[in-house]
Automatic annotation (TrEMBL), chains A, B:
<dbReference type="InterPro" id="IPR000600">
    <property type="entry name" value="ROK"/>
</dbReference>
<dbReference type="Pfam" id="PF12802">
    <property type="entry name" value="MarR_2"/>
</dbReference>
<dbReference type="GO" id="GO:0016301">
    <property type="term" value="F:kinase activity"/>
</dbReference>
<keyword id="KW-0808">Transferase</keyword>
<dbReference type="InterPro" id="IPR036390">
    <property type="entry name" value="WH_DNA-bd_sf"/>
</dbReference>
<comment type="similarity">
    <text>Belongs to the ROK (NagC/XylR) family.</text>
</comment>
<dbReference type="GO" id="GO:0003700">
    <property type="term" value="F:DNA-binding transcription factor activity"/>
</dbReference>
<dbReference type="InterPro" id="IPR036388">
    <property type="entry name" value="WH-like_DNA-bd_sf"/>
</dbReference>
<keyword id="KW-0418">Kinase</keyword>
<dbReference type="InterPro" id="IPR000835">
    <property type="entry name" value="HTH_MarR-typ"/>
</dbReference>
<dbReference type="InterPro" id="IPR043129">
    <property type="entry name" value="ATPase_NBD"/>
</dbReference>
<feature type="domain" description="HTH marR-type">
    <location>
        <begin position="24"/>
        <end position="68"/>
    </location>
</feature>
<dbReference type="Pfam" id="PF00480">
    <property type="entry name" value="ROK"/>
</dbReference>
<protein>
    <submittedName>
        <fullName>Putative NBD/HSP70 family sugar kinase</fullName>
    </submittedName>
</protein>
Length: 404, 404
DNA sequence: TTCGATTTGTTGCTGGGCACAACATACGGG
DNA sequence: CCCGTATGTTGTGCCCAGCAACAAATCGAA
């Protein structure tokens, strides 16, 4: 995880052992919350038992970890006292400014979603000031809700549909919002410094089980376009500029239909929302279509009604998507794909095709069969992932929280 | 860089500050060898001057770093004493077992190639024992040459064309050598523990300038197949199983010509050596073709003679390769490609096409124009990269060398 | 030339933090 | 009931980084 405001470009800076070990101990507690003892941490990290105890004590007095009583053990010996993350300590605020809705949520240290509020509104009909005002209002409400729930917001993160400059906390370009070079995090409450990232990237962090396990996977985030978040060893891979995961314009067929990007046969032209609509024979109606949800629901309805054209369109989209993803898996040697965004809602028809394509085209399949999973969260995924990224920064550097 | 035999799966182990800081100081010396002082290191790392001095002293007495006299400075103040890597300290042994040649080389701490020996021989005509014997003989010769040059071999690495299990130091499968589950590193001299990896991966590490700069790039290694080594932030990305970089079977055209892998229209069918040969109208002659070098030289000859069919084949191959690479760059947000293997020899005809495709298809091109570079080394690249990986392990953990 | 300013490198001191060992604690089992 | 076993705590010593003062070596200005 990115270390917040600390510009850790590479590991060229001196190391602070205490901070590193506090994070290490906390991470082990997070990965086995309620099932781990001081002695376990010592054994797993290689630290001495006394050192592990000292670290845990500091985390307990700091309000990040609690004891959950003694655990009955089968073996002989003194029973261990189990440790768990506190659910009433620091919490993260996540905001998602999408084209057709704005979402906020609060996630506590355990990763649980404690507050969630989604407002469906087409941003394209509003000015930038109105949008920012709405973010501010929703954030303050979330802030109040967190406080009422005995949580302390210790950071925030905003997901936007576009290109961001994380270091400058600025939205470089968000075409669908009409934003350019906008320091959007400034509208957040002053006491929570704001992180910023792409929706697909934050959405990739929303999966509950995967992050703790230091998993590597591709989170496919289908919206109007098709993007992906790349998680390697439990950390989001952002690329050299932060634009990683642009799979929507991978070429499926050099002689395929033209794409607004200037090329031909891009993945979006086969597996994007518009393409599926068109292939299903639904007249595209940008006037009334209020964005992702309703359109996707429409397709799903027709598929459930066994409309032949729709089913054929979904099968075709799944095949093309699966073939493209198989290529990505081959390039990166990943064995796991998560289908998010519209593909989550269309999973009954898309997922089997993706699974088949990936299973047959992944070169490592004979040794390690790749898995295809449906995302846990739908439209809330980016906001939840954003909030979770704040929590990950706390786990990555607990000292910042411990020092007030 | 991988920490050798130490199974550092993730950063779940305790940190040793002294070891980390020794590596940190050494890395800074390596990146600016001859142009850096103790005070510089202190400034760049954030360590105290006295600490930096202590670290450097330890590295000097350990034989890794030397002083190269005072540097005249423009500014006022005491002139700094420049530090540089020693070229007579530890060295790495690199071995490459290819289908049609075996190469060994020795690289010193500065990255300079101090010994190199390539034996052209078609391994397919020999038994496994013969091949292993040759590796052993060549390694002993390299060992003797290093000793005569006042170098101390402190490790070795073998590159093989196939799938390896690094943790077990075993070749899982090398079809063209007929190997399966072979612990090839055991034939190396006993005092150098052997690393193991794929040829494309090691070749990616052979580029001189790029590694020190913590660069991110894709090293395309065209041989009979097409592979790639992925370097992210100066570290080789190997994937979850170590099979990353398999771009040869990315789909270019779903309705293209069939491929032995069972799919259709794979990249190899357009930009692989065999495909270029066939498209150029050269009768494929596996009987006399002694592998990569001669065949590629043949194509290059015909291209130099302006043979229309060959030029068209190369143009087509470059276009398809470039388009595929652009997709990879978009997925990973990389801005740099290095053309190695056969593409290095065919660069005059391939590189411009790749450059054009990448420039037009890389989505970040308007903000950061991608660069296409021709590899520094040819067939020796895997062996040199292998040796260099040994050196990188020394720089990554100098304590192991300092403790004898 | 001389003296102050400036930067580099070294030395002695201090404190943080980890390992180690010994001990108290708390169970299971014969 | 006592022994073996495992957990957690306490006291001690050592490694190592930070700090400050000082010596060294140069530039620049008077």
């Amino acid at each position: 995880m990115h270390a917040g405001t600390v510009r850790r470009r590479h590991d060229t800076t001196a190391v602070n052992p205490r901070a590193t070990h506090l994070s290490l101990a906390l991470r082990h507690v997070a990965e086995a919350s309620g099932q781990i003892s001081r002695a376990d941490i010592a054994a797993r990290t290689g630290l001495n038992r006394s050192t592990a105890s000292s670290l845990i004590d500091e985390l307990i007095t700091g309000g990040l970890v609690k004891e959950t009583g003694a655990t009955p053990r089968a073996r002989a010996g003194r029973p261990a006292t189990a440790l768990a993350l506190r659910d009433d300590g620091p919490a993260g605020l996540g905001v998602d400014v999408n084209v057709d809705y704005t979402a906020v949520c609060v996630v506590d240290l355990t990763g649980a979603v404690r507050y969630k509020h989604v407002v469906a509104v087409d941003q394209r009909g509003h000015t930038m000031t109105e949008i920012l005002d709405r973010i501010n209002t929703l954030s303050r409400a979330a802030h109040a809700a967190a406080r009422a729930d005995e949580l302390t917001l210790c950071g925030s993160a905003i997901a936007v549909p576009g290109i961001v400059d994380r270091d400058r906390a600025t939205v470089t370009l968000a075409p669908n919002l009409g934003w350019r070079d906008l320091a959007v995090t400034e509208v957040l409450p002053a006491d929570v410094h704001g992180l910023l990232d792409n929706e697909a990237n934050f959405a990739a962090l929303s999966e509950p089980g995967l992050l703790h396990a230091r998993a590597s996977y591709l989170y496919v985030s289908g919206q109007i376009g098709v993007g992906a978040g790349i998680v390697l060893d439990g950390r989001l891979y952002r690329g050299t500029h932060g634009w990683s995961g642009e799979i929507g314009h991978l070429t499926v067929d050099r002689d395929g239909p033209p794409c607004p990007c200037g090329r031909r046969g891009c993945l979006e032209r086969y597996a994007g929302q518009e393409a599926i609509l068109r292939a299903a024979g639904v007249p595209s109606d940008p006037g009334t279509a209020l964005g992702v949800r309703p359109t996707v629901a429409l397709i799903a309805d027709r598929a459930r009604a066994n409309d032949p054209a729709t089913l054929a369109a979904l099968t075709r989209a799944g095949q093309v998507l699966g073939a493209t993803l198989a290529g990505c898996l081959n390039l990166l040697d990943l064995g796991h794909v998560v289908l998010g965004g519209i593909y989550r809602d269309l999973a009954p028809w898309i997922a089997p095709e993706v699974e088949r394509e990936v299973a047959t085209q992944f070169l490592g399949a004979p040794w390690a069969r790749p898995t295809v999973e449906v995302a846990t969260y739908g439209p809330e995924a980016p906001a939840i992932g954003a909030a979770r990224s704040v929590i990950h920064d706390v786990i990555g550097d607990p000292l910042r929280w411990l020092n007030h």
